[in-house]
Protein 1
Amino acid sequence: MRPLPRRTCRGGRRGTRRGVVYLRCAAGFTLVEVLVAALLAILVCGSAVALLGLHASLARALQSELGAGSACAWALEVALRDVQAAGNDPARIGVAALRSGSREALEIDADLDGDGRLDTASMERLALYWGAASGGRVLRRLGAQSVGFASPVAAGGFVLRYRGVDGAELGAGAGGALASSDLARVRRVDVEIAVRTDDATREVRLRSSAAIRARLPVRGVP
């Protein structure tokens, strides 16, 4: 029967305890060292997980803000285009550009196809207004059909201001509603829209102005 191979330990040192001679190896780790290493590994992994969670949260917030900004810019472009087309009247049938106007609502007429007839059931009679339904949104009414084109928009997130030929604001009193005598004096409309992010903690607010083209002076015509 072959004897078992003897274990050797290079670089160790000899010691005695209670009369027993033993050889302490220099290689390897003690239990305390293993526990400390495990603790450090747990701390590093925990920090990495926390950092990834923070990064994901920031990415979601940025994506939500970019989405709100894109929706706000698109809605503002639509509203400004509608304002510019107000009062279009190539057949000279006497189309009034603005039927009514207030801080949060605007009603527009325009003979868009130039047939000399105002079709009130189509885009030729259009309204922009804010509604509180579904968390607040800006709606666009085409004839009898209303379609939301900016949401969520809180109260005060859709503001309209009306300016005359000299640039002065019209209807500044009484909640911003225009009197009948002021409707024909409007030459420019300021539009302001604020779209909230998905978590409703922030909002993207944009504003711009559009002139009513049908009321712009024509060069060479008194």
Protein 2
Amino acid sequence: MIKLKPLIQELLVKTLNDNPTYFVAWRDKVFLFGSSQDVDSLVGLYDHLSEHPAFNQDDLNMNMIEEDPYTLISYAADMPADVVSGIYDGKNRSISIMGVEKASPVTSVILKKIVKALKLKHVYRTGDSDDSIKHPAKKFKGKLPSIGYHGTNTENMEDILKNGLAAGAGSSNFPNVVYHENEIFFAANFEESKYYAENSTMDRTGRGGYKKKIGVNPVILEINIPDPALVVPDFDADATSQKSQYYQHDKNQPYSSLTSMGASMEAGKFGYKGKILPQQIRWIYFKRTDTSWVKFRPSTVRTGLNSYGSEWYMMIGVE
């Protein structure tokens, strides 16, 4: 079993403004500052961030920050997952996270530290539809999930209901990019799995780009994770780690100061070196034509398909 080491024991809060509206956190510090910040007071934050392995002075310098302090927040948002930045609301004790693949609910160790250091009540993150989703701060546990979400589609449903999920058993959601014989991939929360469910419905065999398969619709499986010892880093998260531990990535790209598992914890995405049996599927979510999601127990889906075939999907508003 992979043992997780704390990324940071405690965060030191550095308040640079009497009325801060922004925050940047990396390593052992979280900086709070405002939109009308004196640029000289930001030198310490800039120097701290410049020690990050992915930092590039050609992309961000003090002259840019002097013109607009927001440039610093925007740059930090595009850095790897070990740098977390966004909007700070001291009155309501909340933050809004900027950037993607960061600060995942339940699993993010860094965000757990930020929540504690700033005594936050709520955290806002951008969801699948670019809407801001409000999460209670107590939701951030900084632990491996016991429940996961796997994106697939209606084309695979009958086989999944019969045999469960097994690595290498079906086609890859990214056939021209990556294929794994040993891992099933899952997200730690529902929102992060939507992309993979949607992606699994795309036809990549034709010319002129991808297009949606006719009659194939997104499905998300809520699953129990049987054995935490079989959880491994996600493929993409591993690529951003300081050392590629599992998938032998090319390391010519900017990387974070995180381990492979640390990067997965922040992204909330993982691999599983095992099989998910049909009885370990808790709920099955279907995307309706009105874009809402509806969920059923596997037994209900099995009965519906056995009784009505693919017409059952139309009966529940899927197609």
Protein 3
Amino acid sequence: MFDIEARIRRFFNRLLSRANEFKDSDQGKKAAGKISDLRSSDQVKRAASALNDLKSSETAHRAASKLSDLRASDTGKRAEEALKDLRQREPVKKAEETAKKFVHDLRSGGTDGESS
């Protein structure tokens, strides 16, 4: 149980370390500039507009309604219970907790990822 936590923590620490190295490199800075240029482009603005149109379309509303109906059905409720039971298992809880701590550390600018 603790072994999986340690393995996840080591993996995330390596990932964070490599991400920081990339971010500080010339290649990372060049990529950040290109992403910034892309975000401000007309093509991205048109894509965002199209996505908003899709979200508010009748098709999207029908799909959301169908999903809601599926969740309310007996099959949907059984699937939800099975997922809930799975998430209540101790190893899954520990892994989720470790991942949440890592994400919090990452967002707060922490680089060690070893908060206990």
